[in-house]
């Protein structure tokens, strides 16, 4: 996923969001099905690695694509709805695993069925994704004016809006005439603050958000619960994922993204420690549920935020590169947290998670820009030294 997020993320800025989406999904679907056919653990690791190439590039690409086709006033709300629907799969996966893993339907081991179901689901999406429009903002920056205008029309946009994007894209191309658009540095001075903020965020949010889902079964095993009870308790806790995502829908346009991320990160820190301290099943389920509830308010808010703070021509590259850091941290995380769990216990491990969330809160609070209710062009122009652009392409007076 680390490698895929870096290299395939750049691909979306070069060939378009829709084509990159289909390539990523095709890679994931094919090799996930191959996992189900693996004869031994070596092949599982190989095919999981190859599937991860496609999967790693997809979240940041989805954020970039959705942010570019949804109207400003509803951008956060609609993206939150998209993630809410997707997160319904998490508790469904938990209960499905609880049912299938101990069984061998049709003589095939339950864990193999889990991977086959995942790959078939991706295949269904792949076969229907051709109905999606290309991002009009990407088409405009690629110089495909007529196509961009046609997509704007289908999405309910006006001719004036299409001309505004065309004017902005023309000036962007003029500024980048001496260099390849995909090579434009995301560390240039104008975007340095946002880039640093997002890298710090992705390093430490991984510990909190992915730490729970990855390590909570091991926490319960350390507390003495067997695998069946652990899967059952985790599945009940995971109900918080879609409910948290749903709760973010009315909040994400009323509270600025940066403050919503900070508040939910605080909740993750508190209830993570309480989950680690839990000694009875009811406490474990309740605190795990509230933790996942907070974590998906957190997730929806930051997915919207990270795609809003870079211009169209480098949006997928910038968000993909930052997201790749989180994938690297996700791979390293068990080597960091498992020794703590084994030697110091779950409470200490979740105290480290809480510390990571404090760093996230400080990072977002101090460095992230306000984006709620602002158009992508308005956010981008705030970083420009040049005057804003009129619909006719003339630079207006500030």
Strand content: under 5%
Spans of 5+ residues with little confidence (pLDDT < 50)? 176-183, 385-398
Instruction: Please tell me the overall pLDDT.
Output: 82
CATH class placement of the largest domain? Mainly Alpha
CATH fold description of the largest domain: Growth Hormone, Chain: A
By CATH, the architecture of the largest domain is named Up-down Bundle
Number of helices: 17
Estimate the helix proportion, in percent. over 70%
Q: Based on DSSP secondary structure assignment, what is the total number of beta strands? A: 0
Radius of gyration: 22 Å
- Basic shape: globular
Question: What is the succession of H and E elements?
Answer: HHHHHHHHHHHHHHHHH
CATH superfamily of the largest domain: MFS general substrate transporter like domains
What would your notes on this structure say?
By secondary structure, the protein is mostly helical. The chain folds into two domains: 2-132 and 188-368, Growth Hormone, Chain: A (Up-down Bundle), CATH 1.20.1250; 136-175. Helix content is 76%, strand content 0%. The chain is built from 17 helices and no strands. It has helices at 2-15, 17-36, 41-69, 75-87, 89-100, 110-128, 136-141, 145-154, 159-175, 189-222, 227-237, 240-251, 257-277, 281-308, 315-344, 346-367, 376-381. The protein is globular and about 65 Å long.
